[in-house]
Amino acid sequence: MKLLLVFSSPNGTTRTTANLLKKAFLPYGHEVEILDIGRSPWRENHADILQEIRHAEVVGFGSPAYHMDFFQPLLSLFNHMAAQSEPFPIRAFFFLPFSGITTGKAFLRATRQFRRMQIPVIGAIKIQAPHFHHTQPFPTPETEHHIHTFVSELEIKKYAPIPWQMTEDQFKPFTPKVHVIRPLIHWVGKLRELPITMEPALCTRCGKCIRECPAGAIHKNGLVQIEASLCLHCYHCVAACPKQAIHCPVEKLDAMMQRNIQIIGQEIPANQYYV
User: Which domains are present in the chain?
Assistant: First the structure.
């Protein structure tokens, strides 16, 4: 069977998860490809991405949790899929690393959109992962075991779709607070965006930030510049720059995360799969 893992991974944990999924699928004799839509040549190249999706039998879609949903490049891909007149002859599953606070309504919203596209959903997996500026090891042995168990369960169930009503029950938010907070989350997120600045004297024009920005928001026009209207404030450029020429007070993110935990709590268990 041909499997395709489509993902956006601004800070690396989703890419690591995709590689672990590939490693878990291969012993079952499947052909597995991975496709990072946040990097060249795939970034914003929706026509070619859709073509690759059509050539697969099972497609896993993944990104980090972002504002209680999937990351924007993946949501944009879903919208492009929904705009196609020809249906996709695939089965789908979702994978979502998150920092341990909440996955929000990511699975539920995606499943409903795929239902409208008549794409069966066979499963989903959420995985606790460190925030990009933290140094905890990832993956852990627990993470790897969790992923292998998920793939094993998909095999046992022969990749059968989850009944739609069951997805409504399985993917509902862990607390009703999500329903109240989520409509405000993008507005609050904009208010919380941290300033990103560049230090030209340290920049060597190596282009790493340009290649790795999942939104294509960084350009080189003499000096390397961030296009504010495109920036998603994932802060990956801060971690990616080998010369520390891009700055942001990322330490403030920890205080924001603690405040989020006080308001909404944390999902328990953090690692969970659904088939």
Answer: 2-175+267-274 (3.40.50.360), 195-248 (3.30.70.20)
